[in-house]
Structure of Pentatricopeptide repeat-containing protein:
Amino acid sequence: MIWPLGDPSINLTPELERWTARVHSVRPVELQNVIRELRKRRRYRQALEVSDWMKSRPNIQFMPSDHAVHLDLIGQVINGLSSKNYFNSMREKDKNEKTFVALLKYYVRECLTEKALSHLQKMKELGLVLSLSPLHIMISIYTCILASMTRFSRS
């Protein structure tokens, strides 16, 4: 098992290569656990690096839940345009509620109200509002709206 929780500035790809050379096989669940631990510690860049590495392995099947995490990490580390581009490049069979919710979270986190509302509408049209998660996320958008209104009224 690899636990790259030391120096947050190190590049993990060489470490992952050494690890796989030593153990000769890697289970997706091990990498998912590493990504989860890095995300808990807000080490999004390293988590994205592990996710990128995992995605590049031909012997590892990247599941829709892995795509959702990857999408969220792209939004955290790079930007929303990259998130949207990644989402658009995904195969249709990999797009599900989790991946749609990951993009919705980015829109809400960045207070992109129109995009969030449009995205939620598309989810409804596709029948992808299967849980309360997207609706709970949308409640957060109203915090952004209220904050914007407060800033506007103070000006």
Summary: The mean pLDDT is 87.
